[in-house]
C-alpha cells in the first residue's frame, strides 16, 4: 500500500486536468483532513525514534568520541596516504565502508581489552567501572584482573595483541587511523620485566605494525620506551624472540622515521630518530661476537652510517663497523667496504675517519698473517676480496695512496716474507686486480714443464675443431675504460715496489719453486700488459727490470746469476709462447696467411684437390671394378655395403659426366642406390638418429651434388620418385587431408629419433645450385615449405628448413625465410630473427636483402623480437658499409622508443643519417632531452656498468649486462653529433658547449652539493665525448677548457669527480691533436704500434693525481648537557665509581668483585633498589662504551623491575639530577675553531622538541674519540665551583697512552 495514495492520485488527476499550481494547493489543503494529518505525523515520529536508536548503536560501536577527546590537539588525525584499497569484485561502496568500520570497531575493542587487563588497581578499577557490555562487548570473555593469575593475564594480553596485529596486517587504513600513543599505552604492562618474553615480543611487534609514517614515529618517540628497548637488547640468548622483535622495531624506525636531507646535501647528513641510549645498546649487540643478532645489527648500523654519520661518530658506531670490517662476519665485508668507500668519496664525511689508521684496519687480515699458518687462509682470502674491492674504486685507491702509499706498500711487503705460507693468495689478488686471466697452459708453466710439449698436444685438437662463425667485435687496438684504470694501477703498484717484491721471491731459492714461478708469471703478465696499456716512455722504465738484470749480471755470486738468468729466460719463454699461441687478431674475419694452422689446412686442401682430379680421370676397368665392390648391386642391406668405396666413388668418378651416364643407364647402379633414400622404402628414413649413422646423410648430400653436376643426373632426378615421395610425405602432415596417415614420415617423433631430419640437409645441398632450386620448384617442394611454416606446434620442421636452406641465390629460399620471419607464431619469428642475425654476422659483405629482412623485424608486434633485431642491427652497423646501406634505406625507428636509441645514435654519426634525422626533427628533440635530462642518466649508466665490470661477481651475475657494456665508452649523443660537419654546426648554433664550459669553470671544485656534483660529471662526460672526435676538439680549444679539466683532476676534493676527469682526459687523447695537447700538460697518451692514439692517457706525475690533501679527524662537539648532580652519600659514590670502572677492561674484574661485595652488605643494599641510582647507572651505560655482558651485569645488579611506575620515576630523575652548565662553561665548551666539515650555525636558545626515542629533552653531540676504547675509571671529572654545589660528570677523563 503506498504511503500517500491521495497525493499520487491527485498528481495523476492534475496532469489530466492541467490545473495550475494554486489550484493544486487549494485542493490538497481541502482533502488532507485531520485523520490523514495525524497518520503522517505518527509515521514521522516512528521514523525519528528508529533513527535515534541507530545513532546510539553507531556511537557505542565506534567509540570515537571518547577516543578523540583523549588525543591532544598536537597529534591530530593523520591523512591516509597509503595505497587505495582495492575493491573486491561484486562489492559496493557501502560494503567497503562497513568493512572499514567493523575493522575499526574490532581494533578499538582490542585496545580496550588490553587496557582492561592491566593489573594496576587504580587503572583496573577505572577500566572496570567504565566498561559496559554495550561499549566493550568482548569484556565478558576476559579474565578478571583481580582474581586471574599472571599466566592467564599474559595469555589474554598475547591473544588480544595477536588479533590486533592480524587486523592491522589485513587493513592498512586502520593503521593510519589508530593513534600510536594509545596503542603503546595499552601494551605498556606487556613490556615490563614481570611480563613474559613472548608478551614483550608481541608488544614490540604490535608497535612496529602501527608505524606507517614519520608522524607515527614522532608519536612513538614521546612514549618513553627507551629503557624498555635498552633492557631488551641487553638480555641473553634465551630471549631471542624478544630481541628479534625489538631489532625489527628499530629497523622500522630507521626506515620510516629517518629524515634524509635533500638531494643537494651530502651523504650521511640526515637525521635518524634514535637516542644515544638505544644506539649504544644496539652497538653493544653489534660488537659482541657470540650474539646471534650481530650480523643484522651490523647491517643496521651500516644503514644508519649512510644516513646520519654524526650520530654514528658520537656514539662510537664507526669504530664498531671498522672492527667488523676486519674481524667479520666476512659475508658483511662487501657491504661495509662499499659503505666506507662511499663515505671516503666526499670530504665532508671523510673527515670522520682518521687518515692512515681507520680504513687500514681492513688490511690486518693480510699484514697480521705471519706465523698463523694455512688455517688463516680463509681469512686472508676474505681480506684480499675486501682489498680488491677497495682498490677498484677511486675513493679506495686514492685513500690507500695517502702517506706515500703506505697501505699498498704494507700489502706488497708481505710478499717479501719467506716463511709466509699464504703468499699465493696475495699473488692471486694481484692477478685479479689487474684483470689478468692466466692462459690455459699456465699450470704447465708453474710446474716447470716445457711449453713446447703442451703445444704439440694442443695443436691437433685445435685443427680438428671446425672454424667458428666470427663475431663482429671492436678491433683489438680499441682499448677499454677498464684498461685505462688498469694502466693507473700498474703505475701505482710499480711505484709501491711490486716488481721488487716479486724479484725478492725469486731470490729465495736458486732451484725455483711453484710459488716463485707463479711470481715470474705475474711479472711477465704485468710487463706484457704494461706494454699494451701504458705509454712507451713509461712502459720502458717498468720493462727495464734493473734489479733482475743486476742479478743476472752478478758474476761474484753464482746463485744470484742463476736466479736472474732463470727469471729472464722464463719471461722470454712466456712471451714467445704467448705470441705463437695467439697469432690471429681477435675479431678479424679474414683468414691469415702467416698462421701455422692456415698452412696445414692449405696443404690438406691441396691433397684433397689432387685426389679428386685423379679419381675423376679413372679408367674404365678400374671404374667397372669399383661398382661391384660397393655391394650396392647385390644386396639391399646397407650394412653389407662397402661405405668407404662407395664414398670414394661418389666423390670422385661420378663427378665425371661420362661415368655418371654409365652408372645411370648401363648398370642402373644409381637407381638402386637412390632407392635407399626413398622415404616410402623405410630404409634410410628408419635409421636411428645416431652419430655413426650421420655418414649416410653426408653420403646422400654428396650423391645429390654429383647428380646435379651433369645433365644426365638432373634428368634422372626429374624422373626418379625421390622428390615426388618427399612431397607426398609433407602432404601427410596436412590437417585437411581426407585420408590421414597414422605414422607420417615427418612426424615429430621420427624427426627426433630417425634420420628423417637428414632430408632437410639434402634440400640445403640442392638449394646451393640453380639446377637444384629448379628441381625443388618443379616438384613444388617450396610450396610445401610455405605450408609447413604455418603448421602449429611443428616448429621443428620450420627450424630444419631454415637452418639448411642456402640463401646465396635469390629466389624461393629467401622467400621461405621471410615467411618464417613473419609467421603467426612468436617463437618462430624469434628463432628466424636469431638465425638471420647469425647469417649477417657470418657474411663478409653487406647483403642488402638480409638487412632489408632484418629491418622488417623492427616492426614486429613482439617486443622480444624487436629487441633482438635491434641488437643484431646495431652489431652489424659497426661496419661502415653496413651502416651506410641501412641509412640509405631510411627506416622509421621512432616506435622503438628506448630500445632503438643506440641505433639512432649510429645513424646520427653519418652525414646521410644526420640529415635524415634532422629533417625528421629527431636531432632537436634529442638535444633538448640530453641537455636537460639524459646527460644525468648517462652518468648513472656508465658508473653502474663500470662498477659491474670491476665487481668480484661480474662473472657470476648479470653476465648479459656486463657483456653488453664491454668496458668501451657507450655512445654519447653530443659525441656522435660531433662526428659530422653538420652536427658541429648545429652544436655551435645551439650554444650548448659554451654553457658546458661555463659550468665547468664555475663549479669544477664543488665538494658539497651532490646535485651540482652529478651535473658536473655529466657535463664532463659530454665535453669528453665531443673532444674524442677530430671535429669536436676545436670546441675544447676555443673555450680553453682542457686546463680547467686538468685542474679538477688534480685538485677536486671529491674523488669520484677526479676519476671522471681521468676517463674524460682519456677520451680527449683519442685523437692525435688531443694527445699532443695533453702531452704539453704532462699527461701522456698510449699509442698503437702504428703511432695512432688508443684512447688511454695517464699522468706522468702519478703522485700529483692520486694524492689527497691531509685532513684532521673531526668530532662534532657541542655543549655537554649530560652532567648529573653528585651522589649524596659516600656509599653511592663508591658504587658509581665501581660502575665507571667496569668500562675499563683492565680493572673491570676488580670493579665487579667490589660491586658484588657491596651488594651483600646491608648498608649498600638500599642503593641497588633506588630508582635514582638505577637512573645514574642507566645514564652511564648510555653515554659510555660498555660491552654487552657488562651491560647485562649492570642491569642484573639492581633489584629494580622496569614497569610503568619505574619509568615515570626515571623520567623524574632525569630532570631532577641534571645540572645545567653556566654561561662561562658553555663558552669554554664550545670549539675554538669551526669544524672544517660540519659547518652548522650554533643551536638556538630554546630547546628543540622531544626527538623520538630520547629520554632527555635535548639531544646534543658528545665528543667521542678513542676515549671510547678504554677509560680510566679511577679518574673522574669532579667540578667544584664556588657559586654552586659541586657537580660530577658521568664522563671520566681519559688519556691515550702510547700514541701521538
UniProtKB/TrEMBL annotation:
Belongs to the RICTOR family. Residues 158-535 form the Rapamycin-insensitive companion of mTOR N-terminal domain. Residues 54-64 have a biased composition (Polar residues). Residues 54-100, 125-150, 1222-1300 are annotated as: Disordered. One of its GO terms (cellular component) is TORC2 complex. Residues 125-149, 1223-1240 have a biased composition (Low complexity). It comes from the Eukaryota. Residues 618-842 form the Rapamycin-insensitive companion of mTOR middle domain. GO terms for biological process: TORC2 signaling. Residues 1241-1255 have a biased composition (Pro residues). It holds the Pfam family RICTOR_V. This is Protein ste16. Residues 1013-1085 form the Rapamycin-insensitive companion of mTOR domain. Residues 1266-1275 have a biased composition (Acidic residues).
Amino acid at each position: 500500500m503506498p504511503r500517500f495514495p491521495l497525493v499520487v492520485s491527485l498528481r495523476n488527476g492534475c496532469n489530466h486536468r492541467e490545473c495550475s499550481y494554486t489550484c493544486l494547493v487549494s485542493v490538497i489543503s481541502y482533502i488532507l483532513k485531520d485523520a490523514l494529518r495525524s497518520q503522517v505525523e505518527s509515521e514521522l515520529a516512528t521514523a525519528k525514534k528508529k533513527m535515534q536508536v541507530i545513532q546510539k548503536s553507531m556511537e557505542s560501536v565506534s567509540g570515537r568520541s571518547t577516543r578523540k577527546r583523549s588525543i591532544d590537539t598536537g597529534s591530530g588525525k593523520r591523512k591516509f596516504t597509503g595505497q587505495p584499497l582495492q575493491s573486491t569484485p561484486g562489492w559496493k561502496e557501502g560494503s567497503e565502508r562497513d568493512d572499514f568500520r567493523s575493522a575499526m570497531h574490532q581494533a578499538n575493542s582490542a585496545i580496550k581489552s588490553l587496557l582492561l587487563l592491566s593489573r594496576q588497581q587504580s587503572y583496573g578499577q577505572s577500566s572496570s567501572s567504565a566498561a559496559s557490555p554495550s561499549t566493550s562487548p568482548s569484556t565478558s570473555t576476559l579474565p578478571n584482573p583481580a582474581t586471574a593469575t599472571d599466566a592467564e593475564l599474559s595469555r589474554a594480553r598475547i591473544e588480544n595483541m595477536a588479533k590486533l596485529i592480524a587486523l592491522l596486517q589485513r587493513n592498512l587504513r586502520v593503521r593510519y587511523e589508530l593513534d600510536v600513543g594509545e596503542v603503546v599505552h595499552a601494551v605498556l604492562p606487556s613490556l615490563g620485566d614481570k611480563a613474559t618474553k613472548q608478551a614483550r615480543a608481541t608488544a614490540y611487534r604490535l608497535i612496529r605494525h602501527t608505524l606507517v609514517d614519520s608522524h607515527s614515529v614522532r608519536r612513538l618517540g614521546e612514549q618513553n620506551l627507551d629503557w624498555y628497548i635498552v633492557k631488551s637488547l641487553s638480555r641473553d640468548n634465551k630471549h631471542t624472540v624478544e630481541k628479534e622483535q625489538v631489532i625489527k622495531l628499530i629497523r622500522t624506525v630507521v626506515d620510516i622515521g629517518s629524515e634524509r636531507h635533500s638531494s643537494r646535501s651530502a651523504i650521511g647528513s640526515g637525521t635518524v630518530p634514535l637516542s644515544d641510549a638505544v644506539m649504544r645498546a644496539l652497538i653493544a649487540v653489534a660488537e659482541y661476537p657470540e650474539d646471534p643478532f650481530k650480523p643484522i645489527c651490523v647491517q643496521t648500523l651500516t644503514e644508519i652510517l649512510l644516513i646520519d654519520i654524526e650520530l654514528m661518530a658520537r656514539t662510537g658506531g664507526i669504530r664498531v663497523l671498522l672492527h667488523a670490517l676486519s674481524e667479520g662476519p666476512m659475508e658483511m665485508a662487501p657491504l661495509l667496504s662499499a659503505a666506507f668507500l662511499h663515505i671516503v668519496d666526499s670530504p665532508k664525511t671523510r673527515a670522520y675517519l682518521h687518515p692512515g689508521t681507520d680504513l687500514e684496519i681492513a688490511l690486518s687480515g693480510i699484514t697480521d698473517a705471519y706465523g698463523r699458518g694455512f688455517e688463516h687462509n680463509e681469512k686472508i682470502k676474505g681480506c684480499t676480496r675486501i682489498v680488491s674491492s677497495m682498490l677498484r674504486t677511486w675513493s679506495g685507491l686514492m685513500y690507500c695512496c695517502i702517506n706515500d702509499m703506505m697501505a699498498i706498500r704494507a700489502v706488497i711487503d708481505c710478499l717479501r716474507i719467506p716463511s709466509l705460507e699464504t703468499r699465493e693468495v696475495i699473488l692471486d689478488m694481484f692477478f685479479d686486480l689487474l684483470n689478468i686471466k692466466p692462459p690455459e697452459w699456465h699450470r704447465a708453466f708453474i710446474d716447470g714443464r716445457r711449453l713446447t710439449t703442451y703445444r704439440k698436444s694442443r695443436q691437433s685438437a685445435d685443427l680438428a675443431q671446425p672454424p667458428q662463425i666470427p663475431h663482429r667485435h671492436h678491433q683489438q687496438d680499441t682499448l677499454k675504460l677498464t684498461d685505462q684504470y688498469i694502466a693507473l694501477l700498474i703505475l701505482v703498484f710499480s711505484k709501491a715496489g711490486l716488481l721488487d717484491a716479486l724479484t725478492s721471491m725469486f731470490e729465495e731459492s736458486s732451484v725455483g719453486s711453484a710459488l716463485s714461478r707463479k711470481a715470474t708469471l705475474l711479472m711477465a703478465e704485468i710487463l706484457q700488459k704494461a706494454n699494451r696499456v701504458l705509454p712507451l716512455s713509461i712502459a720502458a722504465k717498468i720493462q727495464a727490470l734493473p734489479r733482475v738484470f743486476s742479478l743476472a749480471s752478478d758474476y761474484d755470486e753464482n746463485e744470484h746469476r742463476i736466479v736472474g738468468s732463470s727469471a729472464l729466460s722464463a719471461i722470454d719463454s712466456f712471451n714467445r709462447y704467448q705470441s705463437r699461441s695467439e697469432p690471429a687478431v681477435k675479431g678479424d674475419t679474414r683468414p691469415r696467411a702467416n698462421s701455422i694452422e692456415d698452412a696445414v689446412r692449405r696443404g690438406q686442401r691441396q691433397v684433397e684437390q689432387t685426389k679428386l682430379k685423379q679419381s675423376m680421370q679413372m679408367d674404365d676397368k678400374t671404374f667397372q671394378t669399383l661398382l661391384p665392390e660397393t655391394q650396392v648391386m647385390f644386396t639391399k642391406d646397407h650394412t653389407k655395403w662397402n661405405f668407404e668405396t662407395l664414398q670414394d666413388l661418389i666423390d670422385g668418378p661420378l663427378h665425371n659426366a661420362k661415368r655418371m651416364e654409365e652408372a645411370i643407364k648401363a648398370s642402373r647402379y644409381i637407381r638402386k642406390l637412390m632407392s635407399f633414400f626413398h622415404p616410402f622404402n623405410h630404409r634410410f628414413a628408419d635409421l636411428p638418429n645416431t652419430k655413426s649413422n650421420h655418414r649416410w646423410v653426408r653420403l646422400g648430400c654428396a650423391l645429390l651434388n654429383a647428380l646435379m653436376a651433369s645433365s644426365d643426373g638432373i634428368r634422372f632426378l626429374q624422373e626418379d620418385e625421390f622428390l615426388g615421395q618427399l612431397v607426398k610425405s609433407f602432404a601427410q602432415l596436412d590437417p585437411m587431408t581426407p585420408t590421414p596417415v597414422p605414422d607420417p614420415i615427418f612426424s615429430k617423433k621420427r624427426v627426433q629419433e630417425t634420420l628423417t631430419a637428414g632430408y632437410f640437409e639434402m634440400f640445403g645441398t640442392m638449394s646451393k645450385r640453380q639446377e637444384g632450386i629448379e628441381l625443388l620448384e618443379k616438384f613444388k617442394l617450396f610450396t610445401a615449405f610455405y605450408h609447413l611454416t604455418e603448421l602449429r606446434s611443428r616448429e621443428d620442421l620450420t627450424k630444419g628448413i631454415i637452418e639448411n636452406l642456402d640463401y646465396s641465390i635469390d629466389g624461393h629460399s629467401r622467400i621461405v625465410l621471410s615467411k618464417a620471419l613473419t609467421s603467426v607464431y612468436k617463437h618462430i619469428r624469434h628463432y628466424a630473427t636469431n638465425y638471420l642475425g647469425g647469417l649477417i654476422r657470418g657474411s663478409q659483405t653487406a647483403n642488402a636483402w638480409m638487412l632489408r629482412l632484418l629491418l622488417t623485424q623492427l616492426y614486429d608486434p613482439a617486443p622480444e623480437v624487436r629487441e633482438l633485431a635491434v641488437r643484431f642491427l646495431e652489431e652489424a652497423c659497426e661496419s661502415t658499409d653496413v651502416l651506410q646501406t641501412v641509412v640509405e634505406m631510411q627506416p622509421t625507428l621512432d616506435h622503438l622508443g628506448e630500445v632503438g636509441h643506440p641505433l639512432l645514435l649510429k645513424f646520427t654519426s653519418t652525414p646521410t643519417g644526420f640529415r635524415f634525422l634532422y629533417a625528421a626533427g629527431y636531432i632537436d628533440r634529442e638535444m633538448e632531452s640530453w641537455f636537460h635530462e639524459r646527460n644525468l642518466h648517462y652518468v648513472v649508466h656508465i658508473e653502474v656498468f663500470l662498477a659491474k665490470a670491476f665487481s668480484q661477481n661480474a662473472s657470476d651475475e648479470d653476465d648479459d649486462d656486463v657483456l653488453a657494456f664491454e668496458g668501451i665508452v657507450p655512445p654519447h649523443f653530443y659525441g656522435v653529433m660531433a662526428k659530422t660537419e653538420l652536427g658541429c654546426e648545429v652544436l655551435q648554433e645551439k650554444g650548448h658547449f659554451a654553457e658546458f664550459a661555463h659550468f665547468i669553470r664555475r663549479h669544477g671544485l664543488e665538494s658539497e652539493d651532490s646535485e651540482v656534483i652529478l651535473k658536473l660529471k655529466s657535463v664532463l662526460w659530454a665535453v669528453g665525448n665531443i673532444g674524442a672526435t677530430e671535429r669536436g676538439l676545436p670546441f675544447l680549444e676555443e673555450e680553453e677548457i682542457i686546463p680547467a679539466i686538468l685542474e679538477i683532476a688534480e685538485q677536486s676534493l671529491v674523488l669520484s669527480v677526479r676519476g671522471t676527469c681521468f676517463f674524460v682526459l682519456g677520451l680527449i687523447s683519442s685523437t692525435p691533436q688531443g694527445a699532443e695537447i695533453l702531452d704539453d700538460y704532462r699527461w701522456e697518451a698510449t699509442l698503437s704500434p702504428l703511432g695512432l692514439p688508443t684512447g688511454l692517457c695517464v699522468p706522468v706525475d702519478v703522485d700529483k693525481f692520486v694524492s689527497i690533501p691531509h685532513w684532521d679527524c673531526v668530532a662534532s662537539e657541542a655543549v655537554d648537557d649530560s652532567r648529573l648532580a653528585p651522589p649524596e652519600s659516600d656509599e653511592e659514590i663508591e658504587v658509581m665509581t665501581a660502575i665507571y670502572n667496569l668500562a675499563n677492561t683492565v680493572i673491570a674484574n676488580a670493579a665487579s668483585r667490589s660491586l658484588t661485595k657491596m651488594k651483600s652488605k646491608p648498608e649498600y643494599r638500599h642503593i641497588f633498589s633506588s630508582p635514582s641510582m638505577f637512573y645514574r647507572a642507566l645514564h652511564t651505560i648510555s653515554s659510555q662504551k660498555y660491552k654487552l655482558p657488562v651491560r647485562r651485569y649492570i642491569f642484573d645488579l639492581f633489584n629494580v623491575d622496569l614497569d610503568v611506575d619505574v619509568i615515570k620515576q626515571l623520567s623524574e630523575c632525569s630532570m631532577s639530577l641534571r645540572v645545567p652548565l653556566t654561561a662561562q662553561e658553555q663558552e669554554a665548551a664550545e670549539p675554538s675553531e669551526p669544524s672544517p666539515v660540519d659547518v652548522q650555525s650554533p643551536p638556538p636558545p630554546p630547546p628543540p622538541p622531544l626527538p623520538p626515542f630520547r629520554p632527555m629533552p635535548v639531544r646534543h653531540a658528545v665528543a667521542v674519540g678513542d676515549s671510547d676504547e678504554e677509560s680510566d675509571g679511577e679518574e673522574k671529572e669532579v667540578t667544584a665551583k664556588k657559586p654552586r654545589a659541586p657537580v660530577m660528570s658521568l664522563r671520566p677523563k681519559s688519556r691515550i697512552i702510547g700514541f701521538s
